Amino acid sequence: MSTLRHEKGVHVADKAERIPVVLDTDIGLDVDDVWALAFLLNCPELDIKLITTSTGNTGYRAKIVAKMLQIAGREDIPIGVGIPLDDSPETHSAWLGDFSLSDYAGDVLRDGVGAICETIIATPEIVSLVCIGPLPNIAAALAREPDLTTSARFIGMHGSLRRGYMGADKPMREYNVKQHALACQAVFKAKWEKTITPLDTCGTVMLQGERFARIRDSDKPLTKAVMDNHAGWFEAVKEWPMLKDLDARVQSSVLYDCVAVYLAFSHAHLQMETLPIIVTNDGKTLIDEAGEETQCATDWIDKEAFLDLLTERLV
Fold first, then answer.
1. Helices 32-41 and 221-237, axial angle in degrees (round to 10)
2. Residue 8 falls in which region: left (phi positive, over 0), alpha (psi -120 to 50) or beta
């Protein structure tokens, strides 16, 4: 792994020592994946080797990634189209418009699972595999190349250990786990380094007030794309009961996935516990002696500092 220096509560890599990253995302349903992608693109500690799309219409999801990368001027990043599973609302279609994957100047790899395997194997350093959606692609990659566990570490936005959505005082079945619980089981049982942000920490992350206003008013093209997605997504899903109290003009939705991106380069603002975690067939994540050791972000040391960092990176 890269040698890192410590700077204002964040580990910052020198340019030659950036951490190689593969992102696996179900972008295109909840908008937090868009925020997380923009955050990732603005993290100089990280060297993005590949982005793959997971579940649902993975071609549609790949188009969102491609358009975001085009706006960011990062068409050097290859996109892998993952396994298409499930029906899922395409809540970013208005923003996509008539954008096509053929508009993307970079590489689009139709075998996303193979792309994960080949990218990790070809990278001399340990790859941080940042996963912010359900895990069929990763389970399939492990089945195809079991030795990936010696060349990569898993970082996920998965589970709920002691608290649930919006800080509820009991754990819940978290979406990224329960959607494909057996795939998640395979990933959590694999003998590699595992780090997760469960709902305990990521489930209350929102940008509001001055922080949100700075992002809303930014003229940076990538940040404007985030806000356009935010507005279009809210219009598409405004009837969802959980959003009845959200005023999209003054605050973000819950930005679960941004915490997983942060864990790829720093734990400074989070309380970490090494816990034995199992995934049940019905999608629960439990602390159980029979489980595999997993580094879990179970509480915040300084959430305000993280929100400041996220804001600064996005503007």
1. 170
2. left
Cα R_g (the chain), whole angstroms = 18
Beta-bridged to residue 15, according to DSSP, are: none
Sketch the domain layout of the chain as residue ranges: 4-314
- How far is Cα 169 from Cα 14, in angstroms, rounded to an integer? 41
Q: In which residue are the tokens 């500092």 written? A: 305
- Cα separation, 20 vs 37, in Å, equals 15
Q: Kindly report which listed range (6-20, 55-69, 156-170, 285-299) carries the lowest average pLDDT score.
A: 6-20
SS3 60: helix
pTM attached to this predicted model: 0.94
Q: Give strand pairing partners of 25.
A: 53, 132
CATH architecture of 4-314: Alpha-Beta Complex (3.90)
Residue type at position 218: S
β-partners of residue 272 are 297
From residue 215, how far is each of 38, 39, 173, 225, 230 by CA, in Å? Answer: 12, 12, 32, 11, 11
Helical segments of the chain, H only? 32-41, 58-72, 93-96, 112-122, 136-144, 175-178, 181-189, 199-202, 209-216, 221-237, 256-263, 303-314
Q: What is the torsional sign of CA 249, 254, 257, 262?
A: positive
Structure tokens at 303: 């959430």
Q: What are phi and psi of 50, to 5 degrees?
A: -170, 145
Dist. CA 255–CA 229, nearest whole Å: 13
- pLDDT for the residue numbered 1: 33
